[in-house]
Amino acid sequence: MLLPLLMGMPVILCNMLLQSLVSVWCIRFYIKRFHNKEGAFAGVIALFGIITIVLLGNLLQILLWGMLFLWLGEFNTLLDAVYHSGVNFATLGYGDIVMSPQWKLLGPLEAVNGALMIGLSGACMLAVLQHHIRKQLTM
Fold it and tell me: Which in 31, 59, 75, 89 has the greatest CB count within 10 A?
């Protein structure tokens, strides 16, 4: 039980760092390009940009987990490793691919990590949306 935790924690920490960077990037993107823009179209484009940024950040995190699974020898191809990672990260839990008993605890670790990071992504998008709505209401 300790070995999967020791292997998973560095990936979780890297994902936390990556998500923090993505969140700051989203805020900078919004402030730099849309903070002073008005209207519904500006809000749509700003939100679209933020969604794109957080989606790419989440996909990178899934890829990082997939590379760990590949490195551990759980999968023969990166495609299978990333597919399994995406299922875990999104907490879908299909169960069509199961890891070996030695490493299967990494699945729940990634699911917890994914739930937290996807939640933070949603919070980032909501913050931009709320800011834009407040701006429109004060005009």
Answer: 89
Which pair of structure tokens corresponds to residue 44? Answer: 């749509």
The per-residue pLDDT for range 79-96, each reduced to its tens digit, is: 999 999 999 999 998 989
In angstroms, the CA 104 to CA 94 distance is 14
Q: Annotate 97-120 with DSSP letters as a single string.
A: S---TTTTTHHHHHHHHHHHHHHH
Closest CA to 74 of 45, 53, 97: 97
pLDDT in tens, 99-124: 999 999 999 999 999 999 999 999 99
Cα torsion 27, 29, 32, 33 to 10°: value is: -130
Q: 60 to each of 2, 35, 38, 43, 127, how far by Cα in Å?
A: 26, 27, 32, 26, 22
**CATH code, 2-137:** 1.10.287
Residues 6+ apart with CB under 8 A from 133: 43
* Rounded Cα–Cα distance for residues 137 and 43 (Å): 13
